[in-house]
Amino acid sequence: LIHADLKKQVHHLSPNSAAVSPHSYLRLLCVCLCLCPAVQSQNLVTDNVAVVEGEVAVISCRVKNNDDSVIQLLNPNRQTIYFRDVRPLKDARFQLVNFSDNELRVSLSNVTLSDEGRYVCQLYTDPPQEAYADITVLIPPGNPIIESREGQVIEGNETEMTCTAMGSKPAATIRWMKGDKELQGKSKVEEMYDTMFTVTSQLTFTVTKEDDGVPVVCIVDHPAVKDVQAQTYLVVHYKPEVKIVVEFPDGLPREGQNMELSCQAKGKPHPQQINWVKVDDDLPSHALITGPDLYIENLNKTYNGTYRCFAANSVGESYDDYILYVYDAPTTTPIPTTATTTTPTTTTISLPEATADSRAGEGAPRAVDHAVIGGVVAVVVFAMLCLLIILGRYFARHKGTYFTHEAKGADDAADADTAIINAEGGHNNSDEKKEYYI
Predict the structure, then answer these.
(1) Where does the UniProt annotation place the signal sequence (predicted)?
(2) pLDDT of 69-87, one tens digit each?
(3) Exposed site from 35, 106, 132, 418, fewest CB < 10 Å?
């Protein structure tokens, strides 16, 4: 119609022309096409579909403002699957879900990789309209596999682990977790046949003693599956940890006491060899070693020194030291007392002993409590004062016999006055010879 109308317009514009040049004809054709009104769209729409292999895909062709035009669905090979509500294609996996003036909805069950492609929704209008739905088939990866370079790792060494997720579409992503901490690995993607992918992630880290028994998890992320993971547990070998424990005595080691030291060692593998030595000297001749324990009888100061316990396993050797300092044997100190004539009393005071561990830096005994000493001294002084008061009262009540220098010749005198008169020196000295008792 446009072409016929264009000829009329050209003839009208150039009536005297015998012919119209092709260049002028095409120019006028383009102008006419630009001026022609556009056909109103009926809004044919559809959606892309992603479906896991073996599941069901649903394709929906929807129309707005439909004027009773026919809807049909075609496969990627342009074969008609459904024309209105009729299925010309002999594939029972396609089933009609809904048909109306505004929608044609079709399901495809047991989807395979060969079903992937572009499907066409077609509306018979003038001109016809088309919309496209891309079906993407997702193939989940197989179960991930973790491999370790070595089964047992020594503390402080590096270990390397590999996680592989095979045969997925699209390619999966791999994450690593060690305990509750996420680690970063290096991933490599390898494309296989039919756009299938294999992903390998490599993880390298340095192990510590605390990593023993900690789970390492490989997590695979893929749109077709959730929570796909594999895990392994770290086995870390480490050298022994050694600690010396005093079993007895409880307090300071003193002369004459017995002592037992226990060597506590743990490691992986468990220490099989434990030895006791005395640093820069020999062990006492009668010291007894029983497994991890060292027993010493009848301590004396010649045993002072550093005692060392060694423990070893296949990883290495460790030791711990105990510094022995033998103190004097405990003693009691009696305090002299004074007894009265009525009740004899004896008081003995024992000062508290200081206690301390004889490990390095802890060998000095604790200071005696000064408050206790002050209280004891106060009691003793008070007792002595009471004793002195009692003795004074006693001697005041019991007078003694005293002899005075009486005048010679007093024995023959009739009375005292005569004796004084007859005394040596005569009457003049009588006042000087008198004695008074106060």
Answers:
(1) 1-41
(2) 889 999 999 999 999 999 9
(3) 35
